[in-house]
């Protein structure tokens, strides 16, 4: 019993006729008290965890409603502003026009990210060749990587691995991981190695390895939380969306430090 709450009873039975001494009885009482405190703490912790989860779900539901309204209210004026900016700067000040248009596009991407995070669409899965998806994504990102002074290499250790996925969503995840890797290597000559490996007959893994600064354990534990980011202008939604997409494909994302940077592993089930 603890704080007036009965959690159970402790029984001590001796097969031989025997009267327990007062010291032994007091010892059992002490053990009972300790056990009741342990059970009470565990129960309270479980209750608190459940309450926290409910609060997070309620917040996400509210955020979803707010994001839908925000997207509707923002998109129309943003498109109007974009059109007027293109018209106003048609003949002059191209530099300023490019800056404004870039920022408007970034705002539009933020709206899309909010919607993806709070109102996700179901993946449209189809049988696909994983190596082709990865190779196409690497080719898409190479031009941007060059601007970061980063080399991106695709080194597949598998051939014609069939997976049941939404191709556009998997490409979205890979682009997000590759962009994070490019930013992680800083201004030094960077290198990113992308590979595919079979873990067993049922599972394949995509690895993205960079030679950046690595990630602290504290940050690794929080990667994937909505709105958690170490970047000044980051929202944390990219990795949160990526994590959810892979989970919806019955896979998982794992982040690890290596001797020379960071390794991200994306596991996916293989079509047998």
Automatic annotation (TrEMBL):
It catalyses: ATP + protein L-histidine = ADP + protein N-phospho-L-histidine. Keywords: ATP-binding, Kinase, Nucleotide-binding, Phosphoprotein, Transferase, Two-component regulatory system. SUPFAM superfamilies: ATPase domain of HSP90 chaperone/DNA topoisomerase II/histidine kinase (SSF55874), GAF domain-like (SSF55781), Homodimeric domain of signal transducing histidine kinase (SSF47384). It comes from the Bacteria. Residues 69-272 form the Histidine kinase domain. Coiled coil: none annotated. Its EC number is 2.7.13.3. GO terms for molecular function: ATP binding; phosphorelay sensor kinase activity. Pfam families: HATPase_c, HisKA. PANTHER family: PEROXIDE STRESS-ACTIVATED HISTIDINE KINASE MAK3, SENSOR HISTIDINE KINASE. This is histidine kinase.
């Amino acid at each position: 019993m603890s704080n007036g709450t009965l959690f159970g009873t402790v029984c001590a039975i001796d097969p031989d006729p025997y009267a327990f001494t007062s010291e032994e009885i007091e010892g059992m009482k002490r053990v009972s008290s300790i056990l009741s405190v342990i059970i009470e703490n565990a129960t309270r912790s479980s209750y608190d965890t459940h309450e926290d989860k409910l609060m997070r779900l309620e917040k996400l539901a509210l955020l979803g409603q707010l994001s839908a309204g925000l997207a509707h209210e923002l998109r129309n004026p943003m498109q109007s502003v974009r059109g007027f900016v293109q018209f106003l700067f048609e003949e002059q000040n191209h530099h300023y026009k490019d800056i404004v248009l870039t920022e408007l596009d970034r705002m539009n991407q933020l709206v899309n990210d909010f919607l993806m995070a709070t109102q996700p669409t179901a993946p449209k899965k189809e049988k696909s060749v994983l190596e082709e998806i990865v190779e196409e994504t690497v080719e898409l990102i190479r031009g941007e990587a060059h601007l970061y002074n980063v080399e991106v290499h695709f080194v597949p250790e598998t051939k014609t691995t069939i997976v049941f996925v939404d191709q556009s969503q998997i490409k979205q995840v890979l682009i997000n991981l590759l962009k994070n890797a490019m930013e992680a290597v800083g201004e030094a000559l960077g290198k990113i190695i992308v590979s595919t490996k079979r873990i067993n007959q049922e599972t394949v893994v995509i690895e993205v390895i960079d030679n950046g600064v690595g990630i602290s354990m504290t940050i690794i534990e929080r990667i994937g939380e909505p709105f958690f980011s170490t970047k000044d202008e980051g929202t944390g939604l990219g990795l949160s969306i990526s994590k959810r997409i892979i989970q919806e494909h019955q896979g998982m994302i794992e982040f690890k430090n290596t001797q020379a940077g960071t390794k991200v592993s994306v596991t996916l089930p293989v079509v047998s």
